[in-house]
């Protein structure tokens, strides 16, 4: 008796099952084609309804400042405790704070201040369409009345017709991208928007604002440190300690002077943001292909399910 006979029978059963599947699919081909066509048309309509989104980006380099190098290291070793107490940074300068600046850009407070300062809430939350020829923005009347500068959207509590900064922040971070290359340290900052001009303008503003925020932050800390160090000088009669304190004051004064003469305090623009000529999304061809494939797979599944349901009955 042939021991391979059971395996042969199983192979024949599998072959019969595959033939049955192909036969079922062939018999239901018109239903599959119909569903595929519906999905294909639907995906085309959906793709055409999606507005063009433009992406503007800038390449930034962290600004590194030399503050005495070895002299600072010596000061840190001699009087590091007092420097820490005074809130003094004896590190390598503004470049060390680039990662902090990246996180500040992503923060709710910075974003809220940015939106309010530049009055961009309507351009963020209510844009309907950008007109290329006239370079104008049209707004969704159900959300914002541009003539009366009034928010008209209907929402349920706790939301209000005028979007809160929490809502605005959630929308802003969707179009914002800030990334830092670990090897080069370069920072890429980009904004996506229906208007390429708005995208470019917002990127430029973001770079200017983060430089100003970091500059103000450093100057404020330096002035507080100088005030503290001056008070310590008055309280000591030890010449060596006074000498170190005066050196620390000198370093903080350099920080203030550096901030006053340099606009690009934390980031230097290597490649400024441009008005993009081509859209970054949507990928309409990809949407149509995926929609058609989804329709075809769904059609096959429906045909097979119907067949096996009837077969069990």
Automatic annotation (TrEMBL):
Subcellular localization:
Cell membrane
Tell me yes or no: is Transmembrane helix among this UniProt entry's keywords. yes
* Residue ranges occupied by any Tyrosine-protein kinase G-rich domain in the UniProt entry: 269-307
Task: Quote the InterPro entries the UniProt record gives.
Answer: Bact_polysacc_biosynth/exp, GNVR, LPS_length_determ_N
User: Which of UniProt's keywords are assigned here?
Assistant: Cell membrane, Membrane, Transmembrane, Transmembrane helix
Concerning Pfam families, the annotation shows: GNVR, Wzz
What Gene Ontology terms describe where this protein resides (cellular component)? plasma membrane
Q: Which residues cross the membrane?
A: 30-48, 285-309
Q: Which residues form the Polysaccharide chain length determinant N-terminal domain?
A: 14-117
Membrane protein topology class: Multi-pass membrane protein
- Chief place of localization: membrane
What GO molecular function annotations does the UniProt record carry, in alphabetical order? protein tyrosine kinase activity
* Keyword field contains Transmembrane helix: yes
Protein name, as recorded: LPS O-antigen length regulator
Organism the protein comes from: Parashewanella spongiae
């Amino acid at each position: 008796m042939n021991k391979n006979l059971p395996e042969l029978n199983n192979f024949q059963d599998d072959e019969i099952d595959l033939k049955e599947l192909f036969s079922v699919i062939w018999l239901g081909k018109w239903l599959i084609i119909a569903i595929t066509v519906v999905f294909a048309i639907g995906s085309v309509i959906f793709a055409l309804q999606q507005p063009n989104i433009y992406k503007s980006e800038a390449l930034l380099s962290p600004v590194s400042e030399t503050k005495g190098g070895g002299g600072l290291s010596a000061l840190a070793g001699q009087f590091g405790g007092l420097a820490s107490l005074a809130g003094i940074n004896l590190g390598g300068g503004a470049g060390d704070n680039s990662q902090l600046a990246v996180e500040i850009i992503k923060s709710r407070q910075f974003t809220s201040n940015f939106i309010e300062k530049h009055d961009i809430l309507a351009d963020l939350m209510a844009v309907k369409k950008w007109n290329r020829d006239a370079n104008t923005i049209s707004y969704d009347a159900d959300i914002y009345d541009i003539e009366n500068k009034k928010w008209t959207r209907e929402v349920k509590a706790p939301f209000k017709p005028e979007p809160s900064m929490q809502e605005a922040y959630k929308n802003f971070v969707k179009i914002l991208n800030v990334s830092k290359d670990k090897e080069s340290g370069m920072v890429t900052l980009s904004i996506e928007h229906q208007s390429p001009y708005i995208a470019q303008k917002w990127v430029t503003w973001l770079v200017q604002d983060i430089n100003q925020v970091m500059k103000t932050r450093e100057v404020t800390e330096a002035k507080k440190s100088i005030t503290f160090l001056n008070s310590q000088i008055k309280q000591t009669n030890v010449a060596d300690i006074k000498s170190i304190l005066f050196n620390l004051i000198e370093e903080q004064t350099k920080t203030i002077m550096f901030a006053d003469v340099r606009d690009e305090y934390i980031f230097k623009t290597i490649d400024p943001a441009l008005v993009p000529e081509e859209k970054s999304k949507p990928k309409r061809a990809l949407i149509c292909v995926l929609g058609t494939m989804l329709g075809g797979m769904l059609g096959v599944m429906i045909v097979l399910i119907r067949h096996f349901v009837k077969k069990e009955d």
